[in-house]
Amino acid sequence: MPFTSPFGWVLLAAALAAGWLLGAVTSPEGRKWRKRYREREVIIAKYRREMEKALVKARERVRKLERDAAGDPPPED
To answer: b/e map of 7-29 (b: 16 or more CB within 10 Å)?
Structure first.
């Protein structure tokens, strides 16, 4: 067995991890995942903008309904 000390096993683990990271970074598959990640970020940002608009509309509707329930006249814009 080539690794008889704990230090040898640590070096082996470090070499394996470094090789795995180097392979992941230089792999063409890595570009595909980065592209998918960026596309997903764009989709999430679009969804957030849509939900913020919907939230503003919902809050306006709640205010209007509360005014109507209280009998207050609508504000003049």
So the answer is: eeeeeeeeeeeeeeeeeeeeeee
CB 8 within 8 A of CB 14: no
Q: What is the pLDDT of residue 74?
A: 66
Predicted TM-score (pTM) of this structure: 0.51
| Structure letter (DSSP) for residue 65 | H
Kindly list the domain boundaries of the chain, sorted by start residue: 30-70
- How far apart, in whole angstroms, are the C-alpha atoms of residue 38 and residue 35? 5
CB 56 within 8 A of CB 63: no
**Rg over CA atoms, the chain:** 29
